[in-house]
Design a protein that fits this description.
about 325 residues; 6-stranded antiparallel beta sheet; 11 strands; elongated; 10 helices
């Protein structure tokens, strides 16, 4: 169990670091440009009513960058102003001008400290792995830019590092309900493992689509859901692994928590891995048990035979007297 947890943790963090390096490079070379900073500086001094033309200019300027990001799985690309207005969501350009600092601690932190931050955070519409960078120059802070990706992209790279495994992504129900806009909550449904966790709709997530179609996961989910140990550990939000023997096959199911604000467990990455060694261990234990029983039977037979011989000997001695 510990080895499976360590492998998942290493693969997960290596994947996030790979994306961080890629996004950081794009930020420095494609986004932090004088013409982009000019627009952000202008926007900060502009009333909301006069913002549409400015947003249009920024959108046209960065549309090629956005298309390039999408081709690499980085689907969310947005700019925020230092006065807590969304300057532009390139993935949904019609939705802008709203305030996010109160519901997005990572975003607020990046703007308050004027430094790059990253982590998993649940926004108004989607849960994402986010990379946020400050935008400014000459000591002036204009706002921030954010590039983020869904778990599907993380899973794709983790799968290459941990082949022969299947993955799930479970989101804490209380966190989703507290952050995601009510109408967007229809995009989530209850997990088959724990009622306190949700999965994204299969039409929105390749991981969820695979979960729905996977016979292995469908077979193992009810077993996990009925296990009090699994229920307890998930409620605690801690990392753990559970061995399962089902239909003459063995699996190790590993739960790795994704920790968000204030140390809360926002989600679980779940890895389902065939574990033939468990079958071998079970068979070895069975053989050892059978061997021990045979030895006990042989010992019992020997004792019985010895006592019978002693009784016959005593009877023979008694007849001769």
């Amino acid at each position: 169990g510990a080895q499976h947890l360590m492998a998942l943790n290493v693969a997960y963090n290596a994947t996030l670091e790979t994306y961080r390096l890629e996004v950081s490079t794009r930020y420095k070379l494609q986004i932090l440009r004088p013409e982009v900073l000019d627009i952000m500086e202008e926007a900060l001094a502009t009333d909301e009513d006069a913002m549409p033309p400015i947003r249009g200019r920024l959108y046209r300027m960065l549309r090629p960058v956005h298309d390039d990001l999408k081709n690499n799985g980085l689907i969310q690309f947005q700019f925020h102003q230092a006065d807590d207005r969304v300057l532009l969501r390139l993935h949904t350009p019609t939705q802008s001008g709203d305030a996010l600092f109160t519901r997005r601690p990572l975003l607020r932190l990046a703007n308050e400290k004027r430094e790059a931050v990253s982590g998993f955070e649940i926004g108004r519409y989607l849960p994402s792995f986010r990379y946020i960078f400050p935008m400014g120059r000459n000591g002036d802070h204009f706002g921030s830019v954010e590039i983020s990706l869904p778990f599907d992209q993380i899973q794709e790279k983790i799968s290459k590092l941990l082949p022969a495994s299947e993955f799930g992504f479970l989101l804490n129900r209380s966190v989703i309900e507290a952050n995601i806009d009510a109408i967007q909550q229809e995009n989530f449904s209850e997990s088959g493992i724990h009622s306190g966790f949700l999965i994204e709709h299969p039409t929105l997530s390749l991981v969820s689509e695979h979960n729905v179609c996977s016979k292995t996961i469908a077979d193992l989910e009810p077993i996990l859901k009925s296990n009090p140990y699994v229920e307890k550990r998930m409620a605690e939000g801690t990392a753990f692994a559970v061995p399962i023997l089902h239909d003459e096959k063995a699996y190790m199911v590993t739960f790795m928590p994704i920790i968000g604000n204030e140390g809360r467990n926002f989600a679980y990455v779940v890895r389902f891995t065939p574990a033939d060694s468990l079958i071998a261990a079970r068979n070895a234990m069975w053989y050892q048990t059978v061997a021990a029983l045979l030895l006990l039977l042989a010992l019992a037979f020997s004792i019985h035979h010895l006592r019978r011989q002693q009784r016959l000997l005593r009877e023979d001695i008694a007849r001769r007297k």
